[in-house]
Amino acid sequence: EKWDFVLVSDIHEVGSEKEAKRKKFLDELSKKGFTIKKIEDKKLFYGVRAPKQIFQKYQWLLRNPDSRLQNPDAHRDVPVTARIRIVNFILQNTVTSDLEKLHDLRKKRVFEAAFPLHEKEEVREFLKERWARWRDIFSQQPIEKIRCYFGEKVALYFAWLGWYTYLLGFAAAAGLVVFVAGITVFNSSQVSKEICEATDTIMCPLCDQKCPFWLLSDTCTYAKVTHMIDNEGTVLFAMFMAIWATVFLELWKRQRATVVTDWDLYRWDEEEEELAMELINNLQHEPQQYQHSYFRSTIILLLVLVMIAVLIGIAHGLVIYRVVATALFTQSDLEFLHEQANTMAVMTGAVLHYITIVIMTKVRSETWGGPWALLPSLEKPRTFSQHENSFTIKIFTFQFFTNFSSLIYIAFFLGRINGHPGNYVRIAGKWRLEECHPSGCITDLFIQMAIIMLLKQTISNVMEYLVPWISHKLHKKWQRPKKRRVMLGEEEEAEDPCKRQWLSNYQLSEVNAFSLFDEFLEMVIQYSFTTIFVAAFPLAPLLAFCNNLFEIRLDAIKMMRLRRRIIPRKANDIGIWLQVLEAIGILAVIGNGLVIAITSDFIPMQVYKYTYSPCMTENSTGVDCSTGYINHSLSVFRIQDFEPHTKPGLSPTGLCCRYRDYRNADDYSYTVQFWHIFASRLAFLILFEHAALCVKLIAAWYVPDVPKSVKNKFRIRKHNNLRKEL
Q1: Residue 409 CB coordination number (10 Å)
Q2: Which residues, listed in sequence order, are joined to residue 113 by a DSSP beta bridge?
Q3: Alpha-helical runs (H) found in 220-283
Q4: Phi/psi at 167 (nearest 5 deg)?
Q5: Which DSSP symbol is given to 640?
Q6: What does the pLDDT read at residue 112?
Q7: Is this model's pTM higher than 0.85 or not?
Q8: By C-alpha distance, which of 101, 97, 91, 106 is closest to 18?
């Protein structure tokens, strides 16, 4: 027997309020012509099947207008995905005499679950054997079969993810080339050589108490790693990724247009479909009006700003941790911690940031019905898609700040707001802010991104698979079906063929209207990591590419084997996510421009090479133009000018120490070089962003959104229809 949906309820006491509410709801379905079958086990299971007339009305209302005069009485079978979607809409919008809907009854625990069934059909068996298996990791996805089983929205998600992964391969190859090229200059960089040979350059202490003066040559390896990342190739790669992000989206628009045209959904109207289903459910239904309120919009804006402020506060907590950790590690008796205090503070800070991301994501996912559902509801969206779009923007903003607030601090503020020796900026008047290494801050950003991406793509993905898998196995073990009576009206049978199927579906992990949203959100956050700070971490596209090969099969296995069947939804694009991806593309240009201009030492080094280096001041032909850069970028501080309470002790040289900045030795004001570099940074940022945005616009113009074949197909179809009518 084929059943469209199964409702699950606890066995309530006879005459109880919950039983009465359940009966009222089932009676309303019966009035609409639904067939209902009851099976009793440890729970009550109700199979519901809609009458044919509902689907005939749906077909008639939404038939292709071009074929209305050809065969108006022809009725083809409605696809299973459409049946489930229509029945789900009717179930969700059926109102009892107490003015309660299924959503309200589930809140009151009248019904525990409502889900469509995984049927033992040919398409499902094909997908289980040829798609939802790890061995098919390099195989092409059967998008048409996915559409037939899960609907257009899920099929478009996998089509987008496959296309993203395919084009990510090119970005991964380019990033790998840039990284390998950086390794080749690991030992040959002139700046690194100067740091490694600076055995007589005494640096100022890293903390106030018990921190000794230190030799610049002690950080030789750190300097080599920095210049492996921070080189001319990074600038070219950042520009390449800005172009790649645009080309990827433009090519996806073309791919999407081709796919939805094949499905005959290119000009599908969601609003018309929703109005049709509302009328099928209730002929007296009045259409919901569009609403807008400036007051509600202001309230939402204020709530979102409060949410962002909370996340920035958490980022401040991570900053405080790094400051305190650096001071504690520097004072440690362990030689390794003492010598690598800065690096250890960065690494442990990155792990703590990852833990924060996991916790905040869990808090968000556990409060679907709380503030996150309240914000879009305040706007009174008219359709499910409008509600989903509003929800997407707010949750993405939350996740974006959760993931990137600490990275933004490291990239653009670390070492730039900390003051200078004798006048440090302090947290709570006690702990002074961190400083950048003399070779730059870009390695800190590299370490932070590497740790977060590796942890997200290993631990998070393993947990994403193991939690539903273990839950599924435990359900099967604990809830083995016991033979009990089956009730259908007044008939009794020894065993019912539907029982095993309904129980096995019930034991799978629950899905909700936003299950696919979580998958999209995960991938879009990954896309942000891959593009926004890629100048500091060229391996990001490679890690994302490897992750996505597994992610496609992981999502397939979850949907086919570990979760209940997701409600199929009709769609002809990926919705608001396209605008989010375009916004990320613009942020990527701005972010990478800022990383090169501010975080990287690329600009100061170029200014030195072409203004202050031996190549410019002397007629030296055989000298590297970077010679003397480190000494030029370090300022001198007199030890006698330290704040009295810091007591750093005596310098081995007795009188002064060096620190990273461009300041005069007498009054510690900024030097001419500082303003020269500042102007050059600003000029580069403006040039880079304008050049990158121009290239993006040219690429968007060069690659049409809709292929000519699609336009021609519609034109020929219109022409033929007009000819037939004439």
Answers
A1: 19
A2: 8
A3: 220-229, 232-262, 270-281
A4: -75, -25
A5: G
A6: 92
A7: yes
A8: 106
